[in-house]
Amino acid sequence: MLEIVQSGGWLMVPILLCSVVAAAICVERVWTLQRSRIAPQNLLAQVWTALRGRDLGPDKLVELRGSSPLGVVLAAGIANAGRGREVIKEAMEEAAAQVTHDLERYLTSLGVIASISPLLGLLGTVVGMIEVFTALMLEGSGNASVLAGGISQALITTAAGLSVAIPSIMCHRFFQRRVDELVMTMEQEAVKLVDILQGEVESEPRL
User: Fold this and answer.
1) Using an 8 Å Cβ cutoff, are 106 and 29 in contact?
2) 21, 109 in Cβ contact below 8 A?
3) What would the pLDDT profile of 168-180 be if each residue is shown by its tens digit?
4) Which of 150, 108, 158, 107 is nearest to 129 (CA)?
5) CA 197: distance to chain centroid?
6) How far is it, in rounded angstroms, from Cα 122 to Cα 162?
7) DSSP H/E element including 125
8) Range of 153's domain?
9) Angstrom distance (rounded) from CA 195 to CA 197
10) CB-count exposure of residue 140 (10 Å: 0-12, 13-18, 19+)
11) What's the CA gap between 47 and 186, in Å, rounded?
12) How many domains is the chain partitioned into structurally?
């Protein structure tokens, strides 16, 4: 393996760095973008139970915000309960926008790696072919080892760049799809909470 890396030349260094960063991002995103961590299944039911029991004071709201990203969105709505549907929705949309930004963390970097890795490989191909033609010009076609070394560098860097880019693209699409699904789930839960809060307000007797 080390011999292959050395044969690829100095451009193998940034390609390998890209592979390490991409792998780290994928591991971190797999751990972070778990549905149970982002949008716990029974969280809205727990909030509803607490609302019915009038057990959602400031301390509970702080606890709700710290529980999950969905909790942040729901807490924003509850904090504005009684101020009208539009105010509640606007507060929850602002919280959801911040949460979505956090969910998409590092995905831009992963997309950049997927884009530049094949370009680095292509650059290695160009550098390798330049060495081949330089050797042909200086030594003629008799020195096969020099020619083979340049061609080997060109092929290895191209293969390495594609080997990093292809899984990076696949992971980027997968994580982007996962974020979209989680955001949709949070939006659905937020709509349910708005209906619950409005029902609570409307059910209170007018003074």
Assistant:
1) yes
2) yes
3) 999 999 999 999 9
4) 150
5) 32
6) 9
7) helix 107-139
8) 2-203
9) 6
10) exposed
11) 14
12) 1
